[in-house]
Amino acid sequence: MDDIKNKKLLIIDDEFELRNMINGFLRKEGFTSIFQASNCAEALEVIKSVKPDIAILDVMLPDGDGFSLLSALRQFSNMPVLFLSARGEDEDRLLGLGLGADDYIVKPFLPRELILRLTAILRRVYSTPKQEQRPVFQLKERIIDLEGGIVRNGSTEYPLTAKEHALLFKLYENRNRIVTSDALCQAAWGDDYYGYENTLMVHIRRIREKIEDNPSSPEYLLTIRGLGYKLMVKEV
Amino acid sequence: MESTFRILKRFISATVIISIFLLIFNFILLGVWVFKGMNAGHSPNDVVQNVAKSLRISPNASYSLDFSTSELLRQHHAWAMLVDGTGHIAWNYMLPHELTKTYSLADVAKFTRNYLMDYPVFVWEHAEGLVVVGYPKGSLAKYQHILPTSWVSSSPLRIASLLIGNIALAVLLSLFIGSKLIRSIRPLTQGIQGLAEDIEVYVEPKGVLANLAQSVNSASALLRQRNASLKSRDEARSNWIAGISHDIRTPLSIVLGYSSNLEESSDIPVQKRQQAGIIRQQAEKLGSLVSDLNLVSMLEYEMQPLDKKPIRLSALVRQAASDFLNNGLDEHFILDVEINDENAQVSGDERLLMRSITNLILNSINHNPDGCHILLQTFYNEGSKTCSFVVIDDGKGVSQNELPDLLELPFSSKRKRPRHNGHGLGLPMVARIAKAHKGHLLLSSDIGKGLRAEIVLPSIKVE
Hints:
Helices cover 42% and strands 22% of the residues of chain A. Chain A is α/β, with parallel strands linked by helices and 236 residues long. Chain A folds into two domains: 3-126, Response regulator (Rossmann fold, 3-Layer(aba) Sandwich), CATH 3.40.50.2300; 136-231, Winged helix-like DNA-binding domain superfamily/Winged helix DNA-binding domain (Arc Repressor Mutant, subunit A, Orthogonal Bundle), CATH 1.10.10.10. Chain B is α+β, with helices and mostly antiparallel strands. Chain B has twelve helices and 14 strands. Chain B has helices at residues 2-38, 44-54, 67-75, 105-113, 149-153, 155-196, 210-264, 270-300, 313-326, 350-367, 403-406, 426-436, and strands at residues 55-57, 63-65, 79-84, 89-93, 115-116, 119-126, 129-134, 308-312, 334-339, 345-349, 373-381, 386-393, 440-445, 451-458. In chain B, the strands form four sheets. Chain B has a five-stranded antiparallel sheet with strand order 4-3-7-6-5, with helices on both faces. In chain B, helix 6 packs parallel to helix 7 (210-264) and helix 8 runs parallel beside helix 12 (426-436). Chain B is rod-shaped and about 165 Å long. The two termini of chain B are 34 Å apart. The chains are: A alpha/beta (236), B alpha+beta (463). Chain A binds chain B through residues 15, 17-18, 21-22, 25, 60, 86-88, 90-91, 106-112, 174, 177-183, 194, 197, 224, 226-228, and chain B through 246-247, 249-250, 252-258, 260-261, 264, 283-284, 287, 291, 305, 307, 312, 314-315, 318-319, 321-322, 325-326, 336-339, 342-343, 351.
C-alpha cells in the first residue's frame, strides 16, 4: 500500500493558492513527490522531464484548456488523469471522461473526496491486480456466499439461482439501505424490466426461504412498503 | 395546402351563386321589359277586339262606335274598317283614301298575315264580317312566331339544360380564374404560414401581389432580427451568470478545503473546530446556491440541454423517497408514497426531474422544522394524456395570495413580497424544469392547510 504514497503527482492549475492547498493536503496524507504546473506549456515540460504517475488537471488554463492538453498527452502517455474543474456541466464531464480521464471532480470539492478518489485511481492502476471477489457475508449462523452462489446453514447448502444471486448481490451492495423494486428488477431483468414486479415478489419469497429463520416474518430482508426492500447486515 | 383548397372552394361556390343570380335577374328583367314594350298603352290585339265588340249595328242599318273606342283609335292614330262577306267596306273610321276599295279573299289572307299597303293591320271577327284596325305606317313591327309542338313541349328541358350549362360554364371559368389567383397567392400563404411557425421565409415579389410579398419578406427579416437580438441578450445574461458562478468555484474550493481541514484537525480546540465547521457548511451552501443559480438561469433562457429518455414516474418517485430515507430523514418527518398509475411515463431528463422532486420534498422539510407528513403521489390523466407527481405536506402552508410569488425568482420585480427563508430558488427551479418539459407546476395551499405541489407533464404512455 505504501508504494502508492511514493508515486509522483502533478497538479496543474493556474490558481497558486489552490495548488498550494492541495499540495498541503497531499503531503499531510503522506505523498512525498508532488510537482506543480500553472499552465499547459509548463505541464508538458514537467511531464516530459519528471514522468509523473498521475495528474490533477484543471480545465481552464491560461494558455489553453485541459481537454486539449489531455488529448496531446494521450499521444505519448497513458498516465491516469483526474480532472478538477469549475466547469460542472454534463457536457464538460462527458467530454473529459470521453477523452480518457479517469475521474472528474467539480469545484467546489471537499479535500477528503479528492484524496479518496485519487488513491482509488492509483490503487486501481498501480496495485498488483487482485482477483475481484464476490462478497461472502454472514446472517447469524447462515453464511451467504455470493462467490459460490450458495447459502450455507451448518451442513445444509441452498444453491442460489441466477436471479436470486443478482437480487441478493444488488441488495448487499446497498446493504442497510432501501433498494427500490425498480432498481431490483433492473438488476435482475435489465432495462426492459417493467412488468416484473410480481415475479420479483416471488423471488424475494424464495430468497427469504433460504436466508431467513422464519420467512413469513423476515428479520434480514425487509419489505419497505411502497418503495422496495432492504437487506439488514451487521458489519463485522 | 388545405387552406388554398378551401379558398378555391369558397371562390367557386360564390361565383356559381353570383352567376345563377345574374341569370335569373336578367331573365326577369328581359321578361318585364318585353312584356311592358308589347303592352305600352293598349296592345293592337286589345284595340281590335275592343273595336269589334263595341261596333254596333243599329236598326236602320247604320254602324256606330262608342266614344271611348273611337278615342282609343284616335290616340293610336289608327284607322278601322269593317269588311263584309262580299269584300266591300261596310263601315270605316278615318280610313286612308288609298284603301277605299273592295278586297278579295286573297287580299284578306295577305293582309291578315302581313301588312295592308305597308300599314300594320290587325283583324278580329265580327257578326257582319271582319273588323280591321290599321296603325300608321312603320309604327309597329309584325312578326309571326310559329313553333313546332315538340319544341314547345321540350322547352322546360331546354331551359333546365341551359341553366345547367350556364352553371357548368361558371364553374369552369371560376375554376380557371380561381386557380390562377391561388397560384399567385400560394407563395404568400406559404410565407405567412412560415412566419407563424417562425421559419425564415422569402417570397418572390412579382405579379399583382408584389407589395404583399415584400411586406411578408420584411416581416420575416424583422422577426429574425428580433429573435437574434433576444437570443444574444439571453445568451449574454446566461453566460454572465455562468461566468460568475465559474469564477466563484475556485475561491470557494479553497475556503471549503481549508475549513474542512481545520474542522477535522485534532490539534485545535473543539470550539474552533466547530467554527471551522460552520464556515464549511456556509461554503457548501454558497456552492449549492451558485450551481442552482446557474441551472435556473440556463432554464430561464432555455439554454439547458435536456437529456431526454422515457422515465416511469413511479420509479422516479420511489427512488426519490428511498434516497431521502436512506440518507437519514429526520424522524419528525414521515414520508409516504402512493402510486396511482404504475406505468405513467414521460419523456424527460432524469436528473432534472429528480431534482424537482427533491426540491419539493426539501421545500416541505425546510419550511416545517417541527416536522410534518409528506405524501408523494403519481397520477395518470386519461383525458388530457398527462401524468403528474404530487408532493403534499400537512405543514403550516402559505396564504393563498402568496402562492404566485413562490414561482417568481427571488429578486424578480414581479415578486410582491420578500422571501422568507431559503435562497428562494427551489420552487422557481421546479416551475422552470416543468416548463422545459412542456409541463407546469400547480401549487395550492392556505395558512395551516399544508402545501400541495403538482407537476403536470405530457405523458408518453404507450400501453
